[in-house]
Amino acid sequence: MTATNALQFPISEAPAMGQPLAVAEGVYWLRMPLPFALNHINLWLLEDSNGWTIIDTGINTDACKELWQQVFDNHLNNKPVHQLIVTHLHPDHIGLAGWICELWNLELKMSRTDYMACRLLITDTGKPAPKAAIDFYQRAGVSDEQLNSYKTKFGGYGKSIYAMPESFVRLQDGEFVTMAGHRWEIIVGRGHAPEHLCLLCPELNVFIAGDQLLPSISSNVSVWPTEPHSNPLKDWLDSCAMLQQRTPADVLVLPSHGQVFFGAHQRLQRLIDGHEKSLIKLLEACQQPQRNVDLFSQLFRRPISDDVLTLAVGETQAHLNYLVSKKKLQSSASDNGAIWYQTI
Ligand SMILES: [Zn+2]
């Protein structure tokens, strides 16, 4: 067992891609590749008496489909997949939901908000970037060159997702599902995705956390152009505090990225503290008026490349909107459309 930052990692090596590894009674860890800097996602297979439950699907690539086919051929003990649950709408989690539902004749189970948002976002593919989005990034202060790059990539979300099922089954906070012979409680977190499902099994003392609680990276919490005045950082901080109340301190956490770990409450506190520190840094920096893009160096250790620009603008805006809602920052527009923030 290795430990960093008070977390404990009971399994020192992650399983090879596409090779399920038992992490609790009837619960298997399945890793799939991602074509990004974040190069993997963790998915979960749960063995029920008469079939299997899959939690999350991987992204819509041939590599993931081939690995799934190997799992279906070699690791199901002659039982069908009879349940698919998706934690949230991001392509690495939902990308192959439609494909798996077709293969196994399943109804997709997920939250209503994320299902609806996913169906809506897919319709952006093939359309030009709307004025609301261009205005949003201009207000943040991005360059014309960066804006052009954004326009060419607009609608990319839908390209990573296999055709979605036309209907679904809603899961919501406080409900229970049965997996691996046990009852699991649905716990909804917010801020990273609109209505992110986590699953807690008190009997196994296991928590399937999705992206709501990761051991080594902090999940992106972003404002998006469709709702420029939203306050997802409040949702995220409230969710972290809520999870400290609703999960046992000694629960085994199964996160969507990184290693399985113990230390849920310490990690949640570290995430809360990290955002609090960022908020203080922004207030100091905004003694002099700043635009969104001027503040990247306060929040991110690495320089921001074009492929993560929307995440960086979104995350910075989440912190700015939080401080505006607390009446600690005021904003004013300049002639070229950029918004400047100053500490009150
Ligand atoms: Zn996510």
Task: Describe the overall structure.
The chain has 344 residues and is of the alpha/beta class. The protein has one domain (2-264): Ribonuclease Z/Hydroxyacylglutathione hydrolase-like (Metallo-beta-lactamase, Chain A). It contains 11 helices and 16 strands. It has helices at 62-74, 91-94, 97-104, 112-122, 131-140, 144-153, 156-159, 232-246, 264-285, 296-299, 309-325, and strands at residues 2-4, 7-9, 21-24, 27-33, 40-48, 51-55, 81-85, 108-110, 168-170, 176-179, 182-189, 196-201, 206-210, 252-255, 329-333, 339-343. Strands 3-4-5-6-7-8-9 form a 7-stranded mixed beta sheet. Strands 10-11-12-13-14 form a 5-stranded mixed beta sheet. α8 runs antiparallel to α9 (264-285). The longest helix has 22 residues, at 264-285. It binds zinc ion (ZN). Zinc ion is lined by residues 88, 90, 192-193, 211.
Query: Which structural class best describes the helix and strand composition?
Result: alpha/beta
- Give the CA-CA distance, first to last residue: 48 Å
Overall outline: globular
Please give the order of strands in the largest beta sheet: 3-4-5-6-7-8-9
